[in-house]
Amino acid sequence: MKIIKGDTVKVILGKDKSRTGEVLAVFPKKDSVLIKGLNIFKKHIKATRDQQGGIIEKERALHASKVMVVCPSCKKTTRVAYQLDNAGTKTRICRHCKSMLSSKVSK
Questions:
Q1: What is the pLDDT of residue 36?
Q2: What single DSSP character describes residue 71?
Q3: What's the confidence (pLDDT) of residue 107?
Q4: Is the separation of the CB atoms in 9 and 23 below 8 Å?
Q5: 96 vs 25, 31, 55, 70, 103, CA distance in Å?
Q6: What is the pLDDT of residue 95?
Q7: How far is the first Cα of the chain from the last one, in angstroms, to the nearest whole number?
Q8: What pLDDT score does 103 carry?
Q9: What is the pTM assigned to this prediction?
Q10: Which among 26, 22, 24, 2 is positioned nearest to 10, based on CA atoms?
Q11: CA-closest candidate to residue 63, choices 7, 22, 8, 14
Q12: Which domains does the chain have, with CATH numbers?
């Protein structure tokens, strides 16, 4: 998956279209990402001994195809490219400005 935890992403499809947020978690098996403050739904909770009842708001994971990474240097949404250096470490780079998105990615 080309999106990792901590990336800033922009939603390109759905009810939160054109909003940006930080990735809290990545679920590679489901090909989805959890974004802070986006795709919120309300859940009704019944009161128990330990917990007070009421309506809470939670984030729901979005499919990875609905978001694009925002480059921190050029501030554009971009597809992610990979580059290998002489030491064999794989880095993610922006396709527009060729700047580095993250320092290390596992092979």
A1: 95
A2: P
A3: 45
A4: yes
A5: 26, 25, 43, 11, 18
A6: 92
A7: 12
A8: 55
A9: 0.82
A10: 22
A11: 14
A12: 1-70 (2.30.30.30), 73-107 (no CATH)
- Phi, psi of 51, rounded to the nearest 5 degrees: -130, 140
- Ranges assigned E (strand) in the chain: 8-11, 20-27, 32-35, 40-45, 54-59, 62-63, 67-70, 77-78, 80-84, 90-94, 100-105
Measured CA to CA, the distance from residue 5 to residue 51 in angstroms comes to: 30
DSSP-derived letter for residue 30 is T
Specify the amino acid at residue 32: S
pLDDT tens, the chain, 107 aa long: 899 999 999 999 999 999 999 999 999 999 999 999 999 999 999 999 999 999 999 999 999 999 999 999 999 999 999 999 888 888 999 999 999 987 555 54
Q: Which two tokens stand for residue 1?
A: 């998956």
Q: Which residue has the tokens 């994971």?
A: 61
Tell me the residue type at 105.
V
DSSP summary character for residue 73: T
The two structure tokens encoding residue 42: 């309300």
